Amino acid sequence: MKIAFVGAGMIGAGLAVNAALKGHQVSLYDVAPPETVQGTVRGILDSLTEAGAVDAPAASAALAGMSFTQDLAQAVTGARLVQECVPERLELKQATYRSIQELVGAEPVIASSTSGMFPSALAEGALYPERILVGHPYNPSYLLPLVEVCGPRASQDSIDTAMEVYRAMGKEPVLCRKEVHGFLVNKLSWAVMDGAIQAVADGVCSVEDIDKAIMFGPGLRMAVTGQLLTMSLGVPGGFRMMGKKYGNEEEDSGKTAVIQRIADGVDEEIACRPAEFGNTVEGVSKFRDRAFVEILKLHHKI
Ligand SMILES: NC(=O)C1=CN([C@@H]2O[C@H](COP(=O)(O)OP(=O)(O)OC[C@H]3O[C@@H](n4cnc5c(N)ncnc54)[C@H](O)[C@@H]3O)[C@@H](O)[C@H]2O)C=CC1
Ligand SMILES: O=C(O)[C@@H](O)C(=O)[C@H](O)[C@@H](O)CO
């Protein structure tokens, strides 16, 4: 399938490389000269090759499958999805969508990489607002799998198409059902950043120590088992027993319904995991430990 990337800087070029490495037809449109964008793409492919993520023939084939243009019509015509990655300016994004939809109508889904703008604001004034949603990636976009899809007012076909295209790019799309500040995890990422800044500002720790604390503690766990599964693994009996273990039984008594919902969700998450990643509590714990060992070896901690 053809996927177009409008704005091919740090984020757009990275996502375009993902799509090209999966064999899709990829077009990159930017106001910068094509050779500038090609240079960005080559740099990403070199990084992936040096890191052992791809081999040189695959990198060359990916580059050959990409077209670089300053002609928007050429870039977006025939695209299933247009990933918008222009600078974080609302008017610029809205003008970009109008230009795209004037050229190709409601054909492509338009997904914005925006860090925090709401899809309803982005779609204001659009010819086909139901085709506009957010597909928020994480830097470095050529490696981090997450794309947060958010579009409560987009059509179901638009949502389904975006999820399908991201999976075909090898990404891990998750659906953010409501327009909330920071979507699913930018909100958490910004909260961690604010907390880290405050700890340093208050003289509680150094910059290096707060980063070490995160990367060798909760950050390492989150990288392998998220947050809710992580906490569940730390308590015999799982999430249902958290209050008892940490002495919050009285406080938790008022949250029984949500704790039950989380515990049931963790049980389902474990059961739905592929066997090789562990689909029992014991299996997940063993997978977790294997993953920690590999990461800690890179940090020369093992
Ligand atoms: N950098 C990051 O860590 C992340 C950024 N984002 C979001 O992704 C979007 C892009 O950010 P970056 O890639 O970091 O910015 P960037 O500045 O690296 O790339 C933006 C690209 O857009 C091009 N551009 C400017 N005006 C244009 C126009 N009218 N039409 C087409 N292209 C145009 C620029 O030449 C540049 O190549 C922003 O909305 C940002 O908030 C999302 C996740 C992470
Ligand atoms: O951190 C990321 O890669 C993304 O969440 C982003 O959108 C931006 O970096 C944003 O967090 C900057 O505030």
From TrEMBL:
Q: Annotated site (Important for catalytic activity), which positions?
A: 136
Which family is annotated? Belongs to the 3-hydroxyacyl-CoA dehydrogenase family.
Q: Which GO terms describe its molecular function?
A: L-gulonate 3-dehydrogenase activity; NAD+ binding
Q: Which residues form the 3-hydroxyacyl-CoA dehydrogenase NAD binding domain?
A: 2-179
This protein's pathway reads: Lipid metabolism; butanoate metabolism
Chief localization: cytoplasm
Q: Which GO terms describe its cellular component?
A: cytoplasm
This protein is called L-gulonate 3-dehydrogenase
Assembly and interactions? Homodimer.
Q: Which UniProt keywords apply?
A: Cytoplasm, NAD, Oxidoreductase, Phosphoprotein
Q: Name one GO biological process term.
A: fatty acid metabolic process
What are the EC numbers?
Answer: 1.1.1.45
Q: Which Pfam families match?
A: 3HCDH, 3HCDH_N
Question: Is this entry keyworded Phosphoprotein?
Answer: yes
Q: Per its UniProt record, what InterPro entries does this chain match? A: 3-OHacyl-CoA_DH, 3-OHacyl-CoA_DH_NAD-bd, 3HC_DH_C, 6-PGluconate_DH-like_C_sf, 6PGD_dom2, NAD(P)-bd_dom_sf
Indicate where this protein resides in the cell: Cytoplasm
Q: Which residues form the 3-hydroxyacyl-CoA dehydrogenase C-terminal domain?
A: 182-249
Instruction: Write the lineage as a comma-separated list.
Output: Bacteria, Bacillati, Bacillota, Clostridia, Eubacteriales
